[in-house]
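TA notes. Do not distribute before section.
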Amino acid sequence: MATAVLPAATLPAPAAPALAPETRIPRRVALCDVPQLHAALLKSGALATSPKSFHSLLEATALPDHGTTPAHLAYALRLFRLGPRPPLSAQLYNILMRAFLRAGHPEDALHLFVEMLDATDVNPDQHTVACILKSCSSMCSPVVGRGVQAYAVKRGLVVDRFVLNSLIHMYASCGDVVAAQVLFDTVEEKGVVTWNAMVAGYFKNGSWRKVAEMFKGMLEVGAPFDEVTLVSVATACGRAGDAKLGKWIGEYVEKNGMVGNRNLATALVDMYAKCGELDEARRLFDGMRSRDVVAWSAMISGYTQADRCREALNLFSEMQSTEVSPNDVTMVSVLSACAVLGALETGKWVHSYVRRKGLPLTVVLGTALVDFYAKCGCIDSAVEAFKSMPLRNSWTWTALIKGMASNGRGREALELFSSMREANVEPTDVTFIGVLLACSHSCLVEEGRRHFISMSQDYGIQPRIEHYGCMVDLLGRAGLIDEAYHFIKTMPIEPNAIIWRALLSACTVHKNVDIGEEALKQIIPLDPSHSGDYILLSNIYASVGRWKDAAMIRREMDMRGIEKIPGCSLIELDGTVFEFFAEDSDHPQLREIYEKVEEMIKSIKMAGYIPNTDDARLDVDENEKEVSVSHHSEKLAIAFGLMKLRPGATIRLSKNLRVCVDCHSATKLISKVYNREIVVRDRNIFHHFKDGYCSCNDYW
């Protein structure tokens, strides 16, 4: 980076009161006062008799307490180059090198070091070498660092503790932790700076467990540590999931009155959140005297990662009432929470904020936007966000491929995968999950078989249990139940409950009793308390008229104490997420909602709707079964949307379970009768209902 242009003339010397020799210039002096002070030193003769006075002036100019600006650097360079000044010395060079480093110009510090080496009458000292090694760290240039190390060895400076610590830090920061560790091991008496240099090196390289292990070793030998050490170790504990050590640090910090250190408190909030201790994290967060954007982001991220997304959005709303502005890290967590809840309006506001504030569209933030829009069923907006990104990685492509797959655009997902390969972006194992899902949800059996084989043959990616699950789902959805069963029996890895559950779901759709019974038999030892599995087999029995067997399954659930997971649907209106449960009885507008449901059912019956009561309770008569299915959570949410949204507005909701056959048929007709597009995200895919049709083509 270029330094300031030097003037052709010498500095002016305005009149000023005389100063006594050895006068110490305060570091907080204003830049506009420096020329006067310089003139006073000249007039007093202090520059000729006391080099320390000039050192003090240069230091006050180049390294003021409030930070080095380009103007400070420019004037300091004029003082250094043009004088009048005492003879050059290592101390003068060191002041300017530190100023360049502080101002973010490590290359200029290095140029000054080279100039210093060319000066025959000035020899670098240990502080010079330590400063230049820090410049190498900033530039991530181990090659230059090795050259500086060779110079230090030649001059006998490498034994100095400042130099040795800077060498350890340089190698560790540049990713060569092996070289750093070798140097570290040669130090007989390690101070806290030495330990911190090594800990920081492993931290920067993401070796979280190594950071934790090193700190445990420090405790065993009684090595010194400080708040800087604890910040690194607490953060590493969160990344490594080492809750035991993290809690020890938390207790130590509180016991020793260190919780007032904002960086340390923030690291502890982050650690507790990542270790699943959300309540402890929130207690610390609420107790902080001041919170910066890092603290807010850590807490919001903790809620999002723990699937407490409503609390994440509530906290984000609270953050907006403060003077702390969110950054891109905050926005990634908020978008992830919006994606889970289907909170489209809140996510759109986030996108608008990013554009309005000119936040950099990093790969991580851009990918979060693509994922958010895709998970809200706005696949066209996801494509726009994808195209607007200056840089994309494999995760970005994968997010859009999976989004297209789950939104019923399987062939477009496969075309996107081809474009990804043409762009020379290597697919990951997660990419192939998206590709296989695209084949499954669009009934592209042959394409799915081909890609499953290709991932190992052409890309060297060995299938994981998730890929086998996608293949079972693909074959089962296509009605190839026997082939899916044989596929499971010949898998090279042990099938888990999810694999057998995919087969059981397919048996429900295609009414295959025998293999359905075998699937449940295999599931029970693996996951005995999952209510959905019993419900699926009960539905198979009901679909073929075996009512006694269906009732027997329900009784078995009662005997085992297994409760059916209640259906739950979420709908966002004006930035607020509303939650509905099947046969809900806890909503302030309950009467109006049920009246709207009754009106809705009457309207679609006139258009040909016939209730399907296969999923209803078995212990009631047919009329009560019809009422029961009409009170499923998605019907309540749709009725609420019809009540509250402007005419013609799209209704968007998400459900925790697979949409039942009756709700699917009813929603198709609701979209036609009320002239609405209705987007439903269930446990498996998106359903885009419009004009009496669904994007899944009744294949879900």
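Switch to the second chain here.
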Amino acid sequence: MVQKYQSPVRVYKYPFELIMAAYERRFPTCPLIPMFVGSDTVNEFKSEDGAIHVIERRCKLDVDAPRLLKKIAGVDFVYFVQKNSLNSRERTLHIEAHNETFSNRVIINEHCCYTVHPENEDWTCFEQSASLDIKSFFGFESTVEKIAMKQYTSNIKKGKEIIEYYLRQLEEEGVTFVPRWTPPSITPSSETSSSSCKKQAASMAVVIPDAAFKEGLSGDALSSPSAPEPVVGTPDDKLDADYIKRYLGDLTPLQESCLIRLRQWLQETHKGKIPKDEHILRFLRARDFNIDKAREIMCQSLTWRKQHQVDYILDTWTPPQVLQDYYAGGWHHHDKDGRPLYVLRLGQMDTKGLVRALGEEALLRYVLSINEEGLRRCEENTKVFGRPISSWTCLVDLEGLNMRHLWRPGVKALLRIIEVVEANYPETLGRLLILRAPRVFPVLWTLVSPFIDDNTRRKFLIYAGNDYQGPGGLLDYIDKEIIPDFLSGECMCEVPEGGLVPKSLYRTAEELENEDLKLWTETIYQSASVFKGAPHEILVQIVDASSVITWDFDVCKGDIVFNIYHSKRSPQPPKKDSLGAHSITSPGGNNVQLIDKVWQLGRDYSMVESPLICKEGESVQGSHVTRWPGFYILQWKFHSMPACAASSLPRVDDVLASLQVSSHKCKVMYYTEVIGSEDFRGSMTSLESSHSGFSQLSAATTSSSQSHSSSMISRWRFC
């Protein structure tokens, strides 16, 4: 594999001629470069006017390699050929180099260039590029490659020290200015002047053997700017070294090279808007600076952004009022490192209500807008604090987290959001502070953590109870003055308090679809109609005992009775009730019956859960740990109103209630899932014993545990 290097533009705030004068002093040997033994001039050309000076040298290097490797290779020194072309008229120096030793086994090429800064003729720019291709090397190809790259990168930034060393030396000698080249005058003394110019040009062309890519000597010519201000307008819109340091941070030479090469590739091949440099760097960091992998995920992300117009989401999309009122999250100052701080009161948020009222699409858009706002705030803080800030800190308060937050479709929606964010906003989370984690948190963590990148998980800090107030807690990361008031701090936090989303705001899948929004539950939830004498039933086949059947359903219309049955034999293929029998017109309102009418309860099948009566408007969530393999049937049955025991005449309330159920029809929306026992182990106790500080949810939640099946059913009623 060919290893490549591309430097950023390094800018010296000195004239070209003075840099050349300092550069020439590195010959014939340089004490700052011990491995450079010496060099011999092979060819030399000088133009008559002294403007052009080309010199070719054979450079001798003492390679810092293991003695055994040198012995196997049969060499003590490595030779490179370097060609320097100085054009004093154009004020440029081009350096081309290649290896002479082992040229049939190893191919090393390097090009360096000194030019005048395009916007300031008294400044000098430097760039270099190189490639290393090891065809074969006595079976030590990998070792040689590592040695070469290590020495090369370790010596690249020495260039600044070397140039500054000789600039100081010139200053001590009183040389602070070197005149530019001018065409020689045609006078009797022109011959003398020409000779003098040639000597000066020859001396200025003496350069360190930059050809030694393998040893990084050409990198010694590299120099960073002497002033902190970023330089703009560098040739071909290339990055300069100081800009990288100021806005992107301290990068190794190879990391700089990866950034520049990927950026160049995007400029050449991507027709749309390319990301900002800090975002390109995030993708590289997410893939450990593997250009091919970073390029792949970045291209996918760019396509995604273009398709969904994410670049304009902050300007063109207004979050629905439901999100503004009930989404308990918002930006809140910054942490001690200058990162923007986002506060999320997850325990106080009705995740199910938000999904049911808005759909996954709107919720996803809102999360994307939060991330886009985070990117914008990072840019602002970079300017404010004068150092690179490319990520934000998220503070998640779990006070109030309970079983409702483990609503399976809601968790799946969360996993989908995590997937989208991980793919398109890598390395944006600098730190995640999880506070007041209850006992139910390990269950949520077990479900979510496999979908989070390893690098991201290492940024998580989790505190139970009031541990965040002790040593190593919140004060280590956030100034005392901005700790939110709900965490016993002094700062008023304007983050919405959340709360239950009224059921009146819930919308059906059809309604959301009509608004061109995709409900996350559209592919998870199913709708069913339940009639008097025609229950709706679904079959769950269990292979391994102790599996967990989970369910979540809403009674959209009427009252129903929910049952769970077990049978050792499979029912007949499901038969859908004919449309004519019950006038089913809604495509989403199917009705499937599995239990044959000849089956007898107790002989052909058995009840494994006590019947649960569910009223219209209730949300029911529960689970059942299976004791036997076989076939489980989940049934929703029409609930008939019982007659009044004290009188043969029906009560007015019963009559009114029966009239509300037109045509004796009920409707449910449900979702079920089977979880392996190993994935669900240990969660039952946590769920049953969870407590919540979210008073409304806690008061509205009841749990029932069946000892023989370890089942749980949770129900919520909304006022």
